[in-house]
Amino acid sequence: MTPTITGFERSPDGGKGLARDTRVRWALEEVGQPYEVRLVSFAQMKAPEHLAIHPFGQIPTYEEGPLRLFETGSIVFHLAEQHAGLLPGDRDARARAITWMFAALNTVEPPILELMTARIFERDKPWSEERLPLVKDRVRATLDKLSVHLGAADWLDGAFSAGDLLMVSVLLRLRMSGILDEYENLAAYVARGEARPAYVRAFAAQFAVNAPSIS
Amino acid sequence: MTPTITGFERSPDGGKGLARDTRVRWALEEVGQPYEVRLVSFAQMKAPEHLAIHPFGQIPTYEEGPLRLFETGSIVFHLAEQHAGLLPGDRDARARAITWMFAALNTVEPPILELMTARIFERDKPWSEERLPLVKDRVRATLDKLSVHLGAADWLDGAFSAGDLLMVSVLLRLRMSGILDEYENLAAYVARGEARPAYVRAFAAQFAVNAPSIS
């Protein structure tokens, strides 16, 4: 049964791959699972049909027969449980990979989300310029520790896993800020993720939808 | 094998149950698993011995023989996988409960963390008073949708699950702000969580450690 995911009709990032459907496309490509995409407009995201699948009115969602999921972390985990390629088989190694999924989404992403909010939604506020360095330093406080943990390793804990997929996706949001490039090993880690054939295919698929048309 | 978790030697919240070890204690109580607690000081949390278990230097951690985990979501999920009581057996219902775990930690908690940062770490900043209403409104934008989804139901999706355990725990952080009480059904939902015998035991256990001494 081919699952259907949703994505933005036109992503606000103009095809940079930062919309969260890219994370799900990447996971689907890693496990070799074909998928359909239903594009939704901002108006459709707030309509009852979509809210019935995603109570918070966001993308992506995941439909597989009667099963309807939202939350990128949950969709990636579901794919990792149903198919080989994203979680190790060993019980303890699997639990550690899942730990990194949660670390990406609940420890590393929140200060990055706060930085995006400061840069986008509070850009015109009178406090913006003075406050931004504080927000950036909170991101750095987290990345300092992540960088120490990663060290010279290729991935966070042994082989590439769903934990790396989410961590790389979260860190990609920082590239525009320049902060990622302050950490040589983290920048190389993200580049390793982007070089994976599954990521290349996922990025191209979202780019085909979201890139600004030339005409 | 009795697992060992870590908690603050003295929680900054003075025993209100908002430190994240309470979430893990609650999960352990729900599944009927005895546990040991190792209390760590702020200095110990930054020491190499602790960073080897928790790269971000936080609590809680979870040790079970050779397995060492961090991230509350991951620890709760590990307990839910190993013991009955926190996830439904049906494949699709299980995937939906896991979805609510991620929704609690990656959709609902980030704006609440931002509010805590604004109230605690930016309280003395010149923009604090003018900015706080914006931050509160971002929390409300999320709770509006959560409240609609919950409606008159007892729990987020059928029976109580690890998704409810994490969502109630996240919402508890809002009580002091007064925002939770703006949503009658969410306030009742949190109260239902707090009334569970497993929560009562978990709260009492952390209170015994963290409450200010009278002497």
From TrEMBL, chains A, B:
Domain GST C-terminal residue range list: 90-213
Domain GST N-terminal: 8-87
SUPFAM superfamilies referenced in this protein's UniProt entry, alphabetically: GST C-terminal domain-like, Thioredoxin-like
Gene3D superfamilies: 1.20.1050.10, Glutaredoxin
Tree of life domain: Bacteria
Classification via PANTHER family: GLUTATHIONE S-TRANSFERASE GSTA, GLUTATHIONE S-TRANSFERASE-RELATED
The protein, known as: Glutathione S-transferase family protein
Source lineage: Bacteria, Pseudomonadati, Pseudomonadota, Alphaproteobacteria, Hyphomicrobiales
